[in-house]
Amino acid sequence: VGLDMAQMPIEVVGDRTQLQQVVLNLVMNSAEAMAASSGARRIVIRCTADEQLVKVSVSDTGRGVPIHELERVFEAFYSTKADGIGMGLSICRSIVEAHGGRIWASSGENGDGGLFTFTLPMAEGDLGHDR
Fold first, then answer.
1. Which single residue of 17, 66, 97, 103 has CA 20 to 30 Å from 73?
2. What is the 3-state secondary structure (H, E, C) of the chain?
3. Taking the model in full, what pTM does it have?
């Protein structure tokens, strides 16, 4: 696992447990996506600030999400996993949106793997130390 974090702390206002659940779910999904991979396995978690938004992304070298399913993966009861129930990403979206942010999926770097990104508004008074 690689971490690419801002030099200074970035603050958001929100429920710590819920936001931890979002990150944990994304990391666990990445780990599961790479389970059957014979190539290099790598998860990278990035956190940056831009303007008044905090941007968190989790990327992996797994199988990725087919382009026609990128929006559907956030629907309740929709899963790309054979044994998935399709609630994890739906709950992540609900949590992120309840905190004033948004979440989306895309292809990973160089078109390989998966990339899940969410943004949240910074706490009032936080100037975004990572510019």
1. 17
2. CEEECCCCCCCECCCHHHHHHHHHHHHHHHHHHHCCCCCCCCEEEEEEEECCEEEEEEEECCCCCCHHHCCHHHCCCCCCCCCCCCCHHHHHHHHHHHCCCEEEEEECHHHCCEEEEEEEEECCCCCCCCC
3. 0.85
Domains and CATH numbers, the chain: 2-121 (3.30.565.10)
| pLDDT, tens digit, 9 for 90 and up, residues 58-75 | 999 988 888 888 888 888
- Structure token digits, residue 30: 């990445």
Single-letter amino acid code for the residue at 77: F
